[in-house]
Amino acid sequence: MSKNNVRPSLRRKRNALAMTAVLTVVVLLLFIGVNWLATALEHRYALSADLSFNSLTLQSAATKETLSSLKQPIELYLLTAVTADTFGDSPLLRSDLRTLLERYQSLNPLISFREESLLRSPNWSTRFSEQLNGEEVTTDCVIVYCPGTDHARMLTSDNFLRLQYDLDSQSYAVSGYAVEKALTEGIIYVSDAETPTVQILTGHGELGAGETAALESHLHDAGYQTVRVSLHDQSSLDVDQPLLILCPRFDLTEQELTWLREYLAADGGILYITGYTSPVDLQRFNALLGEFGLGFRPGVVVATGTDQTSYYGDSPVSLLPYMQAAPETQELLASRQDILLMPGARAVTISEDRDISIYTGSLLKSGEAYIRAYEDGLETLERQDGDETGYFDLAALARRYDEDRTSGTVIAVGCSAMFTEEWIYTNTYTDAFLRALMKALGTRQPVSLDISVKSAARAGLGLKPLDWAVWAAVLLPLVILAAALIVLLPRRHL
């Protein structure tokens, strides 16, 4: 072949190779671009399928209806600090939570979702301090924020998990996931300009902010904001919001007693909590309780030991009360959320000599116990001659009715530690009991949606729902075998 013929041939080969390389690069870039676009669309519009047994990342009709009616922008932030697969110490997978948040974003253009690392951007730990009332942001949490109302809510694994007490292992195990319920109710909470409020009385030596941090944190988780109030004039109290009186050490003035009476007459609600070391001679506080047929006995309630299920461990003053059947507790009893712990409890009295317009009911009772006198200190917990023995009320409710309408509700609880110790919240159903008490006071409640909790345990497989499939799987091979025999048997000698 001549040189004149070789050069065009080599040129054509080089051109073909160059064209092939260019086409290869173009195709690769096209595939990369399509893949990037598909991934972006999948994350933005939550196009991935949920094949999990409990459909954890899918939303209910209640959530879709709630999100479709949003009028203000909502910002969702997933804050993490480590690269683990799970969300904090919970069994909840971070990928499932991320997918769920992406699905929320896809349901309404007003919702935006962003994931942030606290290691790379530590300032996020304090960005919402003011909106969260100084609450510390945890390493793994979801922040729900509404710029329009400037309200924020922090959701942790405690909000997302439902625990069930296992009698065999004497511990709590995860029974379900309430991620969707917590997120949707959190969005409603931050988008509502008028958040339900709980008033905390001050000015009489009550428990301070440091002592009530756990209590206020759980009220915030329940959808309430807290505000401290003092009785400086008649308009100090909002009758539409409950009032907490937490272990006062000094008595009311006559004018303050009048204002509290007017607050109750306008259908206000008081939760009065005391401890066994609190003073018992606060005459005006006692008079207010007495008008509703309630009071407190001096001394601490000590279990006799005959009923070992009525106290915790080896401590007879750490009572495990028996929840009583009442309208206020029926939901807790039905869901078996009745395990509480009351260390250092004082007995509540329910007077028979009260006005006929007053309804009273016991909420918590002790097992067999006695009352050990407490004055300057407890020299011994052993029962002494003269100590009263019996089954004592530890929490009670009283409600007054005037002409078929309520005019005040008072709840008395003889133990402050059950509401102020975080360990007790973690290991008992005190949080659920606290919410039930707030609901019993009849005030404006945070929105609670009927969103079912997703099961954490896969249901066992059974044959009944799959009868048709089982029969098909068994009969189809038999029919084919029978047809084969019909065809082949006459030909077996051929």
Description of the structure:
By secondary structure, the protein is of the alpha+beta class. Helix content is 32%, strand content 24%. It contains 13 helices and 21 strands. The protein has helices spanning 3-45, 61-68, 94-107, 157-160, 179-191, 213-221, 254-265, 283-290, 330-334, 417-420, 422-427, 430-440, 467-488, and strands spanning 74-80, 111-117, 141-146, 151-155, 161-166, 171-177, 197-201, 225-229, 243-246, 269-273, 294-296, 300-303, 311-312, 315-319, 322-323, 342-343, 348-350, 358-372, 389-402, 405-413, 454-455. The strands form 5 sheets. Strands 7, 8, 9, 10, 12, 15, 18, 19 and 20 form a 9-stranded mixed sheet that branches. A 4-stranded mixed sheet has the order 2-1-3-4. The longest helix has 43 residues, at 3-45. The model has no long low-confidence stretch (mean pLDDT 84).
How many strand elements?
A: 21
Which segments are poorly predicted (pLDDT under 50) over 5 or more consecutive residues? none
**How many domains, in number, for the residues?**
3
CATH architecture of the largest domain: 3-Layer(aba) Sandwich
Average pLDDT reading:
84
Oligomeric assembly: single chain
Major beta-sheet overview: 9 strands, mixed
Q: Quickly give the structural class.
A: alpha+beta
**Number of helices, counting only DSSP H or I runs of 4 residues or more:** 13
Report helical residue fraction: 25-40%
Give a topology summary.
Layout lengths: L2 H43 L15 H8 L5 E7 L13 H14 L3 E7 L23 E6 L4 E5 L1 H4 E6 L4 E7 L1 H13 L5 E5 L11 H9 L3 E5 L13 E4 L7 H12 L3 E5 L9 H8 L3 E3 L3 E4 L7 E2 L2 E5 L2 E2 L6 H5 L7 E2 L4 E3 L7 E15 L16 E14 L2 E9 L3 H4 L1 H6 L2 H11 L13 E2 L11 H22 L6
Parallel strand pairs: 1-2, 7-8, 7-9, 9-10, 10-20
Antiparallel strand pairs: 1-3, 3-4, 5-6, 6-21, 11-17, 12-18, 13-14, 14-16, 15-18, 18-19, 19-20
